Amino acid sequence: MSEHDKNGELDGFVGADRSSGAAHRRLRPSGGYRKLRSFQVATVIYDATVSFCDRFVDKRSRTHDQMAQAARSGRQNIAEGSRASATSSQTELRLVNVARASLDELLLDYEDYLRQHSQPQWAKDSPEAMAVRSVGRDRTDRSDRSDPTDPTSHAALYRRWLAHDNSAIVANAIICLIHQANYLLDQQVQGLERQFVKGGGYSEQLATARLRERERGGREDQSDQSDQSDQSDQSDRTDRTDQPSPPSCPACGGMMALRTAKLGTRAGSQFWGCAKYPACKGTQPV
Predict the structure, then answer these.
(1) Which residue segment(s) compose the domain that 152 sits in?
(2) Are residue 249 and residue 201 in the same domain, yes or no?
(3) CB 87, CB 28: distance < 8 Å
(4) 278 and 192 in one domain?
(5) 27 domain residue, yes or no
(6) Which range among 76-90, 92-106, 164-178, 237-251 shows the weakest confidence by mean pLDDT?
(7) Smallest Cα–Cα separation from 177: which of 227, 122, 222, 97?
(8) pLDDT on residue 208
(9) 199: Cα within 13 Å, side-chain hemisphere
(10) In the chain, what is the straight-line distance between the N-terminal and C-terminal CA atoms, in Å?
(11) 169 found inside a domain
(12) pTM of the model
């Protein structure tokens, strides 16, 4: 992506052309979000937050629902952004940024909980925080994972912190996970931006594919006309050989087509126009 190479490759999608029944590959892949490390960490955060709120936050408090909703938004928007990637780079970027903002909101809720309950927050380089962070690094480096998309096995790695009876330990562990998810999402956004700058958006890629198809179709039509001329009588062949062959476009080097001017002082006269018109407006006199 792209930075999906850090967080897991996106799955390609093969669809069916209903008009011809032929299989085709979409211009841009979508889905595959279950393999993204950001989605896996966000899933652990969501499940852990629901459990934390049920155990340590008053269910009648608005904070209980707000924290669960923020955690859910962080997870769901990663998935929705991955699905939207097939048709819109801007939508994918927007949804990934929404996920990042939701996790930032959740981070503040956990920090507020610790402060309001007079509990210490682990420093970034404290032994406790380093122990939680090392689990994520070990999982990334491990090559013998049976199923990296299984959220249960992923959450089990953090069970000794997330299932602890001390709410401060649970909150601090989740804070470490949120920082990890935010880092992964930042990398994902940077990768998406680089991909957009390098390859353009969906509309640009679709237009490019259309121009290639038109050019290919033009070459096939030209070949068909040549075959038909071989079957015509000698006089027709002589007439056809008198016609000039299409030159290369002076602007883009592509194929040109014989056109007739419809407006202006040269109306009715013929000229060579680029087959890629209107994308290319190269012309040449006959």
Answers:
(1) 4-205
(2) no
(3) yes
(4) no
(5) yes
(6) 237-251
(7) 122
(8) 65
(9) 16
(10) 46
(11) yes
(12) 0.61
